[in-house]
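Onboarding guide, step 5: your first structure request.
Type a short instruction followed by the sequence, for example:

Predict the 3D structure of this protein.
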Amino acid sequence: MVNRYLAVVLVGALMLAMPGIAAASPSCSDVMPSAIATPQPRRALIPEDLVRLRDIGPVDPKQQYAGLFSVSPDGRRAAFQLRSADPATNGYCLAMVVVELRPGGKAVVVDRGGDFIRFRFDFRGKASFPSGVADTITPRWSPDGRWIAYRRRDRDSVQLWRARIDGSGSEAITDSVDDVEDFRVTADGNGIVYATRPGLREASAAIDREGLSGFHYDDRFSPTSSSRPFPLAPIPRKAWYLDLESRRTRAATQEEAALLDKVPREEGNWTEAAGPRGAVAVVQVPPDSLYASRGRLQVAVGARTTVCGAPECADASYPWWVGDAVRFFRREGWMNEETAIYEWKPGSLRTRRLYATVDLLLGCVPAGAALTCLREGALQPRRLERLDPATGVREIVFDPNPEFASLTLGRVERLRSRNSFGLASFADLVLPVGYVPGRRYPLVVVQYVSRGFLRGGTGDDYPIQAFANRGFAVLSVDKPDPVGIKAAPDYVEGDRINLKDFADRRSVLEAVENLVRVAIARGIADPARIGITGLSDGSSTVQFALLHSKLFSAFASSSCCWDTSMPIRVGPGAAKLFHTMGYPRMTDDSETARAFWRQIAITPNAERIRAPILVQIADDEYWSALQSFTALRELDRPIDMFVFPGEHHVKWQPAHRLATYTRAIDWFDFWLNGVKAPGRDAEIARWEAMRQAVAAPVQSAIAEPAAP
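The system replies with structure tokens like these:
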């Protein structure tokens, strides 16, 4: 019998893979939840439920905290982009939504359509580096509140659109040859200032011309990401002014261009707030701070400044006034797991804590004493709420996923730990659905951030509640701060400290192992059936655990692998940076270099690796896995790898996300439980052959840990 969720994945993937055939467009009939609440029968959560969740903003909340929605000038409405994925067509449904800010308020779709926009960034001197993370789409309001403007992508072009908030129409208002990257509506509402990067197009055209005679291999290359050089960063933006009446565009003046540097408070990001009688509350951010919005709270009235001396005010953020008092946010508790809201009256020596929660509050916008926030909890996907911090009263304004309440979920308990480096960490232990006290269960570790809704870990590849509904316990780990974060004056020195004697890798692994042992000691986790997963830094922990731990019996990684060819695969520019951190050069064959690689690389340790390893990797990164994969395969070690086309580190295509989800569950079910999932005959046969090829039974990752 073929698993119907696997069939959905195969259909979507085949439609993309066949030449000349594009994936069908999703119908998008259910991009908005039903306005009529209909009771749903209770049922088990499956991977497709998580893939199809309607989202406001990027899946990973750490990617972006502000600009996920905006509030109208009169404070009565909010606007945002709503996104839902369809794995059957491998596409997205996108809608711009305006909702009244009251319980049960009317929600209007003011625009439908467009294509998914992925975040691009400058990375290691390379401009417009690709990712699979959703870019933030911030709608901005006209001063009269009658329309919103926003970025929309169609046919590989990102333009500005405008939609009337009553839903009566939307239209493109720019026809830029370059993608619109940012914009602001002018105070009079007559124009829009927007930014593009013509230099990016020009640099790309120059690279095209260079290719006619061969690309020169230099610091512009990242071999694991592309066989084509990247434009060098930074590339400056150019500002334009669009006259909304005539639709004519010209170069923006210096004063107009300065609007692009200002972020309105209505988008949930600010460091100062105007108060009564000319007072201004300001958060003074230290120049060397890692957090652009956190610092010491003070109030200025003219030339006179009153500094809040209370200890809580040293790490304040997002101040706003309620009467003659200033309220502000503060992160606190174990590893700053709590978001607290305080109140301070200028001149007072003390503050008053009004509210605290371990839920994530994202992009909050104040309106008097209340806040409008996107909120998510461990068992609750993101939704728009109103909060009165003084009373704790919450009102749901818009829930994109009311159907989620009908799904069975594993109970969550937070565990806390401190390692021998003195660094704190925590994990959310998710019990299997139907958990029976006294019975031991297979446990899967998911990394490396565990805040807000427990979806699929960093990168969203390992579906936590889908594992729980298949009988697994899950440990969602929030890793400790880097060892070098406080001891170093800059990031480069911090990286050196982290790498010396592999201090940070040892710190993270110790933190993970400590938390796993808690689950074992409590009789929940079966010590013989523990797996570990990860992407990016989480993948580094997976590999370090493979070489240095006996706790884990099966592994799954979404990035791979640290090995001796690392200086080749990262390219000449990045290789210099890694050497500065302390990595050996490619030509270094000293005993010191060999000892270094024995601690972290696969190839020098391939002979003694026995544990099964699943790699599900983006196609622009799979080259980095080939040395390790080949070494292990030559020795008949159990490693299986799947390469996903058109992906960039974090997977964004719905069919790929569902395939990654389901295969990860079936992989651990096979290796930890001996279960052969239906619909995977070829894969199960291959995994069986791998198991038989391993000379010794798989009890731990390796025969002996790597020698220090």
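Each response can be followed by summary notes, for example: Confidence is low (pLDDT under 50) at residues 1-23, 703-708.
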